[in-house]
Amino acid sequence: MTLFKPSRNSNVFWTFPEPVIEILGQQLLQHATDLENTIISRANAAYEYGVVVFNANNPSETEIDTALGLLTFAAQNGHMEAQTSVGRLSDVFGRTLAVSRDEELKWLLVASRAGSTTAQQRFRDLDIDGFMAAMSDIPYGIGTTCPLLNQSLLINCYQVRQAGSYTDVVLSKLHESAITGNVGLLVEIPAELPSDWYECENAFGETPLIVACRGGHTSVLDVLLTRGANAAHTTTQGVTALHFLAAFNDNDIPRVGSILLQHGVEIDGMCERGTIYKELPDSTFGQVGGTPLLWAVAAGNHCAVQALLAHGADPFAEERQLSMFFEHTFEESPISWAARLHQTDLLKTIINKFASDSCRRFIDECHRIHNRGSLRLFRAMDCHPGLRIRDYILHGRQYECAASSCVGSLFDAGVDPILLTRHFWLSKHSQLAHPIMGACLSKNIVTLRYLWDYQNGTLRPTPRLWAIALRRAVFEGHKAGFDFLIDRRDDIPADVSCDVAVIKRILSQTKDLYFTIGVLRLVQKFRVVLSPTDSHSIFQTAVIQGHFEVAKQFWETHNINLARRTGGNTLLHHFISISRGYSDMESKISFVLTLCNHKDPLFWNIGYLDGSGLTALQFAAQMPTQKRLASPRVFYTILKYFSEPKYLNVRFGGHSSSEWAGYTALHFAVRSGNLSAVECLVQQPEIKTSVQSHRGETPMDLCVDIAQYHATDKRRGFWASKDGWNRSAVNMAIFDLLLIKESEGLIKKYSTLLLRKAWDEYTLVDDVKGIRYGIKLQGIW
């Protein structure tokens, strides 16, 4: 079984609706607990289940316990990401780790040496002295990056050295010293070596100086610069030595940054993402393309960020990234990345370094929010549901406060959200450009409250935008945001039509009772008065969507008159009419019928034909299921409710000149070819099959008439089955049902039929003789 891994597909995972995420979680849980699967496969599923739970909105205590238990299982079976995160997550949620602290430290040591920044930070927090001691003896240096890459490069160095030539030996020693930080090996190389030798590249375009910087080896860097190595060299992906400033020890960073800039490294040089450096999901480098400052921000290194800003690094320099899921590109800048990770300290550091012109530039860019694909303000709001487990690890359970703090910092820097709100409608995607909408999309309730009350409510949305935000909260399964928007509805102008529309949309959008019941709070307030049309519309939507509990509660509180007509038709008429387009309409109609203790108002005059009222049975009977005009069980449901004799044989009371005058429900069923309705009716003991219409026709007469019509049309060459069903065959099946039930009225039919004017009297007589002969063969004549 191939597992979908949310940890590797966060950009896809966050787009999933809540029901899909629930199904995915159930599948992962089942796979993780199935003893027939391999241990490795179960460990992978266990970790991914934990990711699903901790990326969810407010996981339950049971889900948290289950997820932490499975993360521990995954960690005990060698899953590195589980090993780096289970201890921190246990602390965040107030649980005791199921293994000893010494066991966790062993996991963290292995992961730290593999380059996991999460493990390194956790190791430092638990035992800084132990971390320094444990990491000091590895050949790649503290804060190691790309250990797998380094190992492969070292193997290549050894192989090249075995070639025996002087050049190969020298070049291999250069790269080996840069990888390992072995200054002694570098000193063995003659100092008078031409400077262009120091430009030798490995397979990825890295010179020894860049490799030394990637490992944070200050001593090797100093020697290489002294010997004339080119510090401004770039790799095939545009990476410079300055992009790895965060790899050095904090004490060395300011000096190293100055030296590299003095030797010609471009401070805002752009590079590609550099995925070769991202060996783990939380690797220090290779997360994003851009400037050295962006790489320092992505690495979360305050010293590197401060050093680069001090030298004039541009916090707004952007690298356009091609989106995998959208047609446009999006931009990443140092300040937007700090906001995205909710790194409040980093963001404040950047903001505090603004020059006046930079600050003005930043504000102007944010004012053009409707033209931006990736904006600082919205990045700060975002609590990306595909990355929420990362937020828990970085910020604990108060991760929403970190995002809100970032938003406040941007406002303090001069961003004017009020101006953005005034012009948000200029955007092609204006619905998403409003700050309130951004907070709703992020599921960040803390930021939503902050923005709602900002400057006494100046950011509060219009009723239309509020409705969009409410629907989005439902789609995202964001219950806290939903409740907030419902409870604060009175803070914005009243608009009953908007409220009614959003109730109907939500009833059509979700099956979750939390939302479908909760949204009724909008119209349960004493000051809200709904018109009968609006009340019926909401009730009708609730029934059609199968929300019986909601519909019953609304029916009781708003005194819905089920017999009320709209456009001359009742609700029952409407439900029968649309039954072909919705599933399980028979149960929905049955629900409506059982609400009323008195049947008559629901039975009589539910619709009109030729100006006269139709009963529920008559209208349902004329909706043939063969044409897919109604669900086959709808008529049975209505007949079951109205099965008394006083309802079964009621005749249509149209004017005597109407061709329908005097028709019973059975007449309508025969005339329309509703075979299932005829079958239901003839099984009723009290049904009368010989009732005549005002024109003297019994249901059997109609069958004979229809048979003659089709036979005539076919002979003339006009007959065709345009609607996809064989009307003639259906009529004969109905004829058989009626013959079994009743054989009266046939002689009268023939005498009446022969007196009618037809296009060919002789043909008509022949048809009647043929029908009589057919009946005689069946032994009934």
State the separation between the terminal residues, measured CA to CA.
68 Å
Main β-sheet, in a few words? 2 strands, antiparallel
Q: Which homologous superfamily in CATH is the superfamily of the domain at 561-777?
A: Ankyrin repeat-containing domain
Strand fraction: under 5%
What fold name goes in the CATH topology slot of the domain at 561-777? Answer: Serine Threonine Protein Phosphatase 5, Tetratricopeptide repeat
Poorly predicted residue ranges: 322-330, 367-374, 424-429, 716-724, 744-765, 775-781
Q: Specify Rg, calculated over alpha carbons.
A: 39 Å
Would you count the extended β strands for me? Answer: 4
Give the fraction of residues assigned to helices. Answer: 55-70%
**Number of helical stretches of at least 4 residues:** 44
Integer average pLDDT: 83
- What order do the strands of the largest sheet run in, or round the barrel if closed? 1-2
Reading off the top of the CATH hierarchy, the class of the domain at 561-777 is best stated as: Mainly Alpha
CATH architecture of the domain at 561-777: Alpha Horseshoe
Inertia-based shape:
elongated
Oligomer: single chain
Structural class: mainly alpha
ANK repeats: 204-236, 237-272, 288-320, 661-683
Protein name: Ankyrin
Pfam family, one: Ank_2
Keywords: ANK repeat, Repeat
